TrEMBL record, chains A, B:
One of its GO terms (cellular component) is plasma membrane. The keyword Hydrolase does not apply. Ca(2+) 1 binds at F24, G26, G28, E68, I254, G258, A296, T299, E304. SUPFAM superfamilies: Annexin. The gene is ga17694. Belongs to the annexin family. Keywords: Annexin, Calcium, Calcium/phospholipid-binding, Metal-binding, Repeat. One of its GO terms (molecular function) is phosphatidylserine binding. This is Annexin. Ca(2+) 3 binds at D298. A pair of annexin repeats may form one binding site for calcium and phospholipid.
Length: 314, 314
């Protein structure tokens, strides 16, 4: 359910590199050319372009980009051009280093990726930052957030569809009891959310709903300023309905005065090759406006053009 | 520094399979033939034999072994024949399911393996047990042990040699302060031990020693019956001197009346292809007896013969 559009006949990698080099050279930069190439190549193609570009011109493609463009457009081109695991590592590193309770990027990366993808992020993190992801999260996050985030980012969940019904019942009961007593950061809540497989958790949440008459996330709605509760809800939503969770991130980025460009760029660059079509459908359904039109209304220039290209606009 | 002896001219895989099949067939089992083959093949060769055996005879090699032999010999042959990651997954699963405070197998697997090896164990655990390792550890271990063991088994430590000296100083100070106040399970102690790279931890422990005049493990010697303290010391020893730690495991397995066959089998099967020569040297130095002779004195029969083969005896 990707939105990325790759042309039927993709030019040779050497040609793409040459065109990009031309886009950077001379007076001014040809931003449209950059978008027309990088905005229509998949991860493997972008990787091949980066490799060939560095070999041909003796300079990293990302360095050339950084030298030529700036602002939100630069950030979007850079993030998009990176490999998915590398991109998540960069986002996770920013989120860890400037950690604050309201930042839910780490939750998104830990919970809306497959186990293998999350592990690839940890490998890319080593290569790029000479640290482990968990070490940076543990060193910056504090209190209950650390207790939750460290096991979230280090999880390697089983991904089979097997479900243990008895366990789902007993753990739904534990969750209900702890939530009922407002022990939101209890070890057992954290153990269940950070170690069980997604299939097992869905069964647990379903049983919770059936047995107690509310979705678990409804019972986790307390003080809207309680960032820990919001983080727990984000974890659960990333497991149960990642595209609706990400629709909300996009909606909040666009809503109101001003735009949260970082969040909008993140949703579009991380999902254009994954499920951005589903996110856009959820957006249209929820807001009665196509996501493309909302993005066009809230952004401008080359930044707008790149986002719309990634959203699949012809 | 392996002890395993593989012949210069290894028979074809098909021949090994045929010989093994012969060893299982007819009245009685030819244990010596089993040892002469499997006890002298490396992990890749054993893997090839398992694959070819299953294809040729329509039965898993491990199943044929289990049908024919028993007891300590069976357990040793099975563990040895498994791939290293699979073997560790089996050992970790036993340790998690029957978890008790005195069991330090999980520490050994989490701390005396490389980051990539530990991750391979987690992958093998999925395949074999349809669960994640951390989920089983978290479900069985309790209290402070859970708080320590879950991050230990989920760590993917950075393995570069870079050391941040300032950090080593500040974290040595934190460790000293917490230990001084007997806060052995403090979040900060656990954070440091479970997330920092081994190179960084060695620098921290060295600085601790220089600054406070004692090795950290000396300061962690309290009540000898305190299993948590012993576990912390095991963690640190697995980082600082794994072969001396494992020498001690072997020594305690052999010492006194009776033998701890599980521990002895574990040390020999997990290290024969790694560093068993170093462990044997440490043993000889510490006990003034060669490890081979001590093993021969404490075991018997085919079990003894397999262990001695893995110890490199001609």
């Amino acid at each position: 359910m990707a939105t990325l559009k790759v042309p039927a006949a993709v030019p040779a990698v050497a040609d793409d590199c040459e065109q990009l080099r031309k886009a950077f050279e001379g007076w001014g930069t040809n931003e449209e050319l950059i978008i027309s190439i990088l905005g229509h190549r998949d991860a493997a193609q972008r990787r091949a372009i980066r490799r060939a570009y560095a070999e041909t011109y003796g300079q990293e493609l990302l360095r050339s980009i950084t030298d030529e463009i700036s602002g939100d457009f630069e950030r979007a081109v850079i993030l998009w051009t990176l490999d998915p695991a590398e991109r998540d590592a960069v986002l996770a590193n920013e989120a860890a280093r400037k950690w604050q309770p309201g930042n839910r990027v780490l939750v998104e990366i830990a919970c809306a990726r497959s186990s293998a993808q999350l592990f690839a992020v940890r490998q890319a993190y080593h290569d790029r930052f000479k640290h482990s992801l968990e070490e940076d999260v543990a060193a910056h996050a504090t209190g209950d957030f650390r207790k939750l985030l460290v096991p979230l980012v280090t999880a390697y969940r089983y991904e089979g569809q097997e479900v243990n019904t008895r366990l789902a019942h007993s753990e739904a009961k534990i969750l209900h009891e702890k939530i009922h007593h407002k022990k939101y950061s209890d070890d057992e809540i954290i153990r269940i959310l950070t170690t069980r497989s997604k299939a097992q958790l869905l069964a647990t949440f379903n049983y919770y709903n059936d047995e107690y008459g509310h979705r678990i996330n409804k019972d986790l709605k307390g003080d809207p300023k309680d960032e820990f509760l919001q983080t727990l809800r984000a974890v659960i939503r990333c497991f149960t309905c990642p595209e609706r969770y990400l629709e909300k991130v996009a909606r909040q980025a666009i809503a109101g005065l001003g735009t949260d460009e970082n969040a909008l760029t993140r949703v579009i660059t991380t999902r254009a090759e994954v499920d951005l079509k589903l996110i856009a459908e959820a957006y249209q359904k929820r807001n009665s406006v196509p996501l493309e039109r909302a993005v066009a209304g809230d952004t401008s220039g080359d930044y707008e053009r790149l986002l719309l290209a990634l959203l699949g606009q012809e």
